[in-house]
Model the fold of this input.
Amino acid sequence: MMKVALVYDRVNKWGGAERVLLALHKLFPDAPLYTSVYNSKTASWALRFNSGQAKIKTSFLQNVPFATRHELYAFLMPIAFESFSFDDFDLVISVTSEAAKGIITKPKTKHICYCLTPTRYLWSGYKDYFKNPILAFFSKPLVYYLRTWDKVASQRPDAYIAISKEVQKRIKKYYGRESEVVYPPVTLENSKFETRNSKQFQNTKYKIQNTDYFLIVSRLVPYKRIDIAIRAFNELKLPLKIVGVGGEERRLKSIANPNIEFLGYLTEGELVRYYRGCRALIFPTLEDFGLTILEAQSFGKPVIAFKAGGAPESIIEGKTGEFFYPQTEDALIKKIKEFKSSKYNPIDCIKQAEKFSFERFKKEFTNEILRRVRRGSG
Done:
């Protein structure tokens, strides 16, 4: 039987990437998880790795002050991942948007990278992260070092699997590597909360209730551009509920009018309730893929999204959602003013989400792994 290990950048938060990791844990329940740091207080979801044979194994950064709570040690991430040994494993799957792809394996160990995106703050999102000219100037030596290492590290995996066509393009552009696309699954545990799939929805009297609010589900960090939605809803004076936490929370609250409510971190049951009750999900970011887009559709809700990144791969325009462009509050305001909930059939939204099921993911990902293991790298 093949011995498998999983590798992930840092286990200290909750979001779409962490749902992807849990989907892989479901496929490989005995695989240990190697990571730079682990914060059990902010990543309670990872407790399911500390059962049976699966364990969380951290690097030396775990003992560095504040490393488990903050991403201040980017310059040490290369060393952290190069310090791990995978000699006892037949297959290692790195799930990464940063340094985990840089692990070093011997020829007998196959390394497949499930790439969330090439390191955003070094490549596609560099201008967003280093808007401040003073910060950009003083960070040049560090960025140069990390870009150089990232280029070298990008050649270490035997093969790449991308989470979307958008990420596939970035892998080719920044790393010069080919990849196959396997979309991540919708993994919100719907079945615990009286889920209805499209067939059940059609054959029962169950109704998805609409209320008067729009919804955002996101980490509150700069590149997510939640500020665009806040400014739009300030002007529209429509109710907006925001689920999520992050470093931008205080600033975003300071610019929001009373019609905008911040809900913070929610349990899955609470999140389901807000998905069910909203008119639509607002998605203002240029995202690698965007699992919340599919979560909203799985509850029969349309999505209003910025037309870029992975969003066009999961929304059927005019049927399960709408796009706005460019990435400005004016464009979003215009689209919301045109939006009518009655135009969208919940069954169409649910059917679209069903295309991204866990069973589909399991089949495609397993087939891709087997193909790579049997035929060699590519």
User: Anything to note?
Assistant: The radius of gyration is 21 Å.
